[in-house]
Design brief:
Layout: H1 11-15, H2 21-27, H3 29-44, H4 53-62, E1 72-74, E2 78-80, H5 91-100, E3 108-109, E4 114-115, H6 120-129, E5 135-139, H7 142-154, E6 158-162, H8 175-180, E7 185-189, H9 197-203, E8 208-214, H10 230-240, E9 244-249, H11 265-270, E10 275-279, E11 290-294, H12 296-303, H13 306-311, H14 315-326, H15 331-336, H16 340-356, E12 362-371, E13 380-388, H17 392-397, E14 401-403, E15 405-407, E16 410-414, H18 423-435
Parallel strand pairs: 1-14, 2-12, 6-7, 6-8, 8-9, 9-10
Antiparallel strand pairs: 3-4, 5-11, 10-11, 12-13, 13-16, 15-16
């Protein structure tokens, strides 16, 4: 009898088949070839018939993501999950990214045909969103904004900061070390739990570069604690002739009644801050970037500093930022303001469908959080679908992957960070995970 392995289609024949052409264009020839080779190996092992190699290849290719990071449904209840990329972009920002992927007028004035201000449309949108700012600038992230400020305003000089605000940010990076790397010296004042205006007054002198006010966004101290606010420090800095730089961190541009303790850029600028820094990919709901807002003289010093060139953002970030600022409310804002009753209704509907499909599920009232170093201690009342804990691994392995949280022996799939349009995908993912 003829060896059936000899009937396995050759690699070059399979790769030349027109039905694989879209996959080659989407994923690249090498990646498709690897999938073809795996299907051929299955045929050699007798797991599938030789005639099924092409179909097996197609099925495997359809399950592959479009390159890059995998899509994840954020069912953790953490609105801004750092490990999941923080803020999901709006449809307007996504469309802007597609347009910006080609050649654009990022640094060209089409009316004159000459070089124009880089990202001027995005900067104009940011300035319009925060009228209290005389000038604005954008860099890679909030840490970059602080590094640029420290380098341009305080290299070889002192930055006066409260000991209670010497925070550690993500991945073990610490603010004191970040600032010291610029050549500035830190002048620590006060204590861990209490700092007064008098502490700052005694520290100011000819060697002061600026006073730094940092919002401790990823923790809070309660009890016998206190520190001056921007409004308390602004008159002192004005009299001393030193800038007051305020790190708001979370990207809130205007007050939000849901987050009364969270500082916003507009309020701090009106209170007298000379420069406010913030993140674009947190409560603003845009791409990762660092926002610099404040007095025109200070912003211009930072913008013209040589380091600014190394920290500038690319055309994709500028496009997404402009669309976020000028377009409809981004997903983060919508999710933050979702009504608990609506979330519970969605959870009950999903739980009923899963139960009807034979999978134990029930709706549960839960508390979500802002995350991303924003609004510590604030609980966001919401709802989740509770399913068996054993589904967690299979859900993470699915396409799209689903990440929930385990509490009291149950896997909670929290709906706070998920749009209603994601409910169907979540249902399908749970059903598929049960079959694995």
């Amino acid at each position: 009898m003829a060896n059936p392995r000899r009937t396995i289609p050759r690699t070059d024949v399979l790769l030349a088949d027109p039905v694989l052409a879209p996959a080659v264009e989407r994923l690249g020839r090498d990646r498709v070839k690897a999938v073809v080779n795996r299907a051929q190996e299955r045929a050699r092992q007798g797991e599938i018939p030789p005639g099924a190699v092409l179909a097996e290849t197609l099925e495997a290719l359809e399950a592959l993501p479009h390159g890059g990071p995998r899509r994840v449904l954020n069912a953790t209840g953490v609105l801004l999950h750092t490990n999941l990329g923080r803020a999901p972009l709006s449809a307007a920002a996504t469309a802007a990214l597609t347009a910006a992927a080609g050649t654009t007028d990022v640094e060209l004035d089409l009316a004159t045909g000459r070089r124009g201000r880089r990202g001027r449309a995005a900067l104009a949108a940011l300035a319009a969103a925060v009228p209290a700012a005389e000038a604005v600038h954008v860099v890679n992230n909030n840490a970059a904004a602080l590094v640029l400020a420290a380098t341009a305003l305080a290299a070889g000089r002192e930055i006066v900061i409260s000991r209670g605000e010497l925070v550690e940010i993500g991945d073990g990076f610490r603010l004191p070390e970040l600032l010291a790397s610029t050549g500035a010296r830190l002048r620590e004042v006060g204590t861990t739990n209490r700092t007064s205006v008098a502490d700052y007054t005694g520290a100011l002198g000819p060697g002061t570069g600026f006073v730094l006010k940092v919002h401790p966004s990823n923790y809070r101290i309660e009890g016998f604690a206190g520190t001056p606010d921007v409004a308390d420090l602004a008159p002192l800095c004005e009299r001393a002739g030193v800038p007051l730089v305020a790190d708001a961190g979370s990207g809130l541009l205007r007050p939000d009644p849901l987050l009364p303790a969270e500082p916003d850029a507009a309020t701090w600028l009106k209170a007298g801050a000379g420069l406010v820094t913030a993140s674009g990919d947190k409560l603003l709901g845009g791409p990762q970037c660092g926002l610099l807002l404040g007095r025109s003289g200070l912003v211009e010093r930072l913008r013209r500093h040589p380091l600014a060139r190394a920290l500038r953002v690319d055309k994709l970030t500028l496009a997404a930022l402009e669309a976020t600022l000028a377009g409809p409310s981004p997903p983060v804002h919508t999710a933050l303001h979702a009504l608990p009753a609506d979330l519970l209704e969605r959870a009950r509907a999903l739980a009923a469908r899963l139960t009807a499909a034979g999978l134990p599920a029930e709706a549960a009232e839960t508390d979500g959080v802002v995350g991303g170093g924003g609004a510590p201690g604030v609980r966001l009342a919401g709802a989740a679908v509770a399913v068996p804990e054993g589904l967690a691994e299979a859900l993470r392995a699915g396409e799209p992957a689903v990440l929930g949280r385990i509490e009291h022996g149950r896997l909670l799939l929290d709906l706070r960070a998920l749009a209603p349009a994601d409910d169907e995908a979540l249902y399908d993912a749970v059903i598929a995970a049960r079959k694995r």
